[in-house]
Amino acid sequence: MWFFASPQIIYGEGSLSYLERLQGTRACIVTDAVLLKLGLVEKVKAALAPTGMALDVIADVEPEPSLETVRRGAARLLDLCPQWIIALGGGSVIDAAKAMWVLYERPDLQPDAINPVEALGLRQKARLVAIPTTTGTGSEATWAIVLTDTAEHRKLGLGSRENLPDLAILDPELVLDLPARLTADTGLDALTHAVEGYTSALHNDFCDGLCLQAARLLFEWLPQAVADGSNLEARIHTQNAAAMAGLGFGNGMAALAHGMGHALGGALHVPHGRAVSLFLPYTIEYCAGEPGTRYADLAAFLGLPAASEAQAAAALAEAIRNLERRLGQPLTLPECGITRAAFEAALDALVWNAQGDSQTVMSTRLPDDADLRRLFWLAWEGENAPSPLPPSQGKGE
Amino acid sequence: MALPFPTDVWVKALMEDLNASQAYADAAKNWEGDFFFIIEPAGTMTTPVTLYMDLYHGKCREAFAVAEEDHLDPVFRLKGPAPTWKKVMTKKLDPMQALMTGQLKLTGNMAMVMRNVRAAKELVESCTRVPTDYPV
After folding, report:
1. Nearest CB to B114: which of A156, A201, A360?
2. Is B57 in the A-facing interface, judged by CB distances under 8 Å?
3. B113 contacts in A (CB within 8 Å)?
4. Do A113 and B106 touch (CB under 8 A)?
């Protein structure tokens, strides 16, 4: 038994106007200070104006939102009592809004206890609309919530199927001004979702097609969206691909690149998409050769050499590195601006947090602590991960 | 020789395997919390069986079949029918998938669980290493 869950998705030019169909008396927009300043909140307010609803704004969600931000936001929602929560922003905002919504409905819960096992009983007070302003996290189409425990410098993979948004509105006008670096970071996050969604231990028939097509769209259109943000066609395709990849990995799972990326983001504050996509080729090489990988299918669909799993994994990893080079993305940890001293100081925590991440266990090959330590070192050195990973040569151990 | 599941001798064998597992010791080094594993009857079983394990910082301190459940109040309870346990322990069903679809029901400190997913995975790995005779 398994599930496929999706919000109702409204996409394409003018889709923001769908908001005028919402019914209720009060809505709260959850967003961040930058989007407030850029005027995007005003656009959403204008779209909601015909509803006559009273509108409130919570605009203090930070990148990589903390447990405390969620607690604070939920307290505001309890004061405001909205019937709609409108999450306007990137993955950080949407994830935070999901968690605020859960705590608004269930004040007895702590945010780090939001889990996929227990029934939450949501939608007694409000429903959630997600409006992405980036093109990558796919958070608008998933129930996943990533929050940061600032005390432990650790990201937590949380969520319940119940906190899936009710509506996802993909309006390309909202991403036309997304800066090139953010377009690349978030687009590569979507590519990581597509690849890991297709190859995780919980891949399934319903997600396969979404992941394959999302990967193909991103290889084709992401460079164009980064090169020319005003290219509407490129924006539409990358925006759609991000949501499709979100559905793909959200109804399967992500895997090791996400486990390592979450650890890196929590300890050394590398943006999520940059972190997970940096590790993706290393983890593909690491998993290659294990039973159950499906790199040949994926590589063949992308037009890459795929005579064997090993050849396909190598070709896929190289294609991803080439795309990252083309987009000016870091391929190593030093290229992320991390000093060796900071890396070495954080390494134990990186290994521990990657090991405990809820996505790592979905990898087709489960690394032990020594493997993880060496994968982090390979990403430091920029060396391709040999498969199978040979015995330790003492590097960093 | 295969050990009958779910019995006192089986859970003690699991304890022995867990305490020999470096992977479990690594994954569960922050774990604190004892468990009831409640196996609902099927096949040759006629009544529910409860197994107790005291899991603490990567080791199992105590394990036994519970004779009188009410005398203990563990932090976690994991419950499901015997066929589902068999599917999980023979790797025919992913443990997270079993939990997320309600085929196994877990109660307890979920924040602790969400921070220690790998420990649960290693616990299942350990189960697969115990030669087992299932009642179904």
Report:
1. A156
2. no
3. 115, 117
4. no
Q: Is A65 helix (H, G, I), strand (E, B) or coil?
A: coil
Q: A348 CB near a chain B CB, below 8 Å?
A: no
Residue type, A325: R
Are residues B94 and A202, on separate chains, in Cβ contact within 8 Å?
yes
Please name which of A242, A238, A214 lies closest in space to residue A226, comparing C-alpha atoms.
Answer: A238
Structure-token pair, residue A218: 């991103």
Q: Which of A50, A60, A55 is nearest to A22 (CA)?
A: A50
Question: Do the beta carbons of residue A166 and residue A206 sit within 8 Å?
Answer: no
CA A319 – CA A186 distance, rounded (Å): 18
Q: Which residues neighbour B88 within 8 Å (Cβ) at sequence distance 6 or greater? A: B94, B95, B98, B104, B124, B127
The CATH code of domain B3-128 reads 3.30.1050.10
> Do strands B49-56 and B59-65 pair parallel, antiparallel, or not at all (unpaired)?
antiparallel
Terminal Cα-to-Cα distance of chain A (whole angstroms)? 42
- Residue contact B115–A112, C-beta within 8 A: yes
CB of B110 less than 8 A from some CB of A:
yes
CA distances from A125 to A19, A106, A107, A120, A318 (A): 19, 10, 12, 12, 48
Interface contact A201, partner B, CB < 8 A? yes
Sorted by sequence, the CB contacts under 8 Å of residue A260 that are 6+ apart come out as A275, A276, A279, A283, A350, A354, A357, A360, A372, A375, A376, A379
pLDDT in single tens digits along all 136 residues of chain B: 899 999 999 999 999 999 999 989 988 988 999 999 999 999 889 999 999 999 999 999 999 999 875 678 999 999 999 999 999 999 888 888 888 888 999 999 888 888 888 888 889 889 989 999 999 8
Q: What are phi and psi of B22, to 5 degrees?
A: -70, -35
DSSP state of A111: G
Phi-psi region of A12 (alpha: psi -120 to 50; beta: other; left: phi over 0): left
Reported as a pLDDT band with limits 50, 70 and 90, residue A387 is low
Structure tokens at A207: 């997600």
| DSSP track, A140-201 | GG--EEEEEETTTTEEEEEE-GGGS-SEEEE-GGGGTT--HHHHHHHHHHHHHHHHHHHHST
Tell me the domains of chain A and their CATH numbers: 8-175 (3.40.50.1970), 180-381 (1.20.1090.10)
Q: Does B101 touch chain A (CB under 8 A)?
A: yes
Considering the entire predicted model, what is its pTM? 0.91
Phi and psi based region of residue A103 (left: phi greater than 0; alpha: psi -120 to 50; beta: remaining): alpha
Tokens coding A99: 């968690």
d(CA A356, CA B25) in angstroms, rounded, equals 13
Query: Among all residues of chain A, which has the CA nearest to that of B103?
Result: A1
